[in-house]
């Protein structure tokens, strides 16, 4: 718009020079023509604009009405009295971490941590980052409602990134937030996706980087964890002792069963046969007749 105004001023000045030159018989005509040529050259940037990849450009007429939009990277033409408003469509990040300073840049924003209350009423501070993209087709609607992209982010997107985690945290108790952060993160992403669907915003990724409870809560949780570990250790030791005792019982039962089988198999006939076999294999045999003290040594 500035180049257009300057060009118009120079064009009028050049036309004035030419008019005066014509009134004076043509003297000074060159100055007027030179001024008009310069005005024409300055008109080029007023009719041309560049657009980077990942941007959408909304064209605005001098009166404030919207002429259209462009989503393709490169150089584009426009009417000299039209101005451009750029929106970032990708790589937009809203990040709230620790004691960060509040700052806005196009579709991105930064700021301090978000404070939430869980299902048990306990308060915690979370660090969260949301990556999102903008559907170019919605750029004109956003401009109609909010003007520049920074205004939209301040009024809507950044507010939602704070409010949605607070709403979702009420579904999770303290233990869940401390131990199952991934489920909490997924719930936030699902809620944001539903809320932004009609605005042309697509949630690319949500990252809950840290959940910080007061020391009084984390200390009690650590104590409970330690007690649970001791309990589990004791239960494991009991299982080991039970296994050892069962092993001994099985072994003893096996030996008893084997002895029983052996005893049952030793009948009188079997014992007599073993006795005869032993006599046959002896190198020297001494016989004592039953009821006698006389020893007989056979050859």
UniProtKB/TrEMBL annotation:
Coiled coil: 226-255
Keyword ATP-binding on entry: no
A single GO cellular-component term on record: membrane
Boundaries of every Band domain copy: 46-225
CDD domains per the UniProt record, alphabetical: SPFH_prohibitin (cd03401)
Entry-linked Pfam families: Band_7
Keyword vocabulary terms for this entry: Coiled coil, Membrane, Transmembrane, Transmembrane helix
Segments crossing the lipid bilayer: 33-50
Membrane is among the record's keywords: yes
PANTHER family assigned: PROHIBITIN, PROHIBITIN 1
Official protein name in the record: SPFH domain, Band 7 family protein
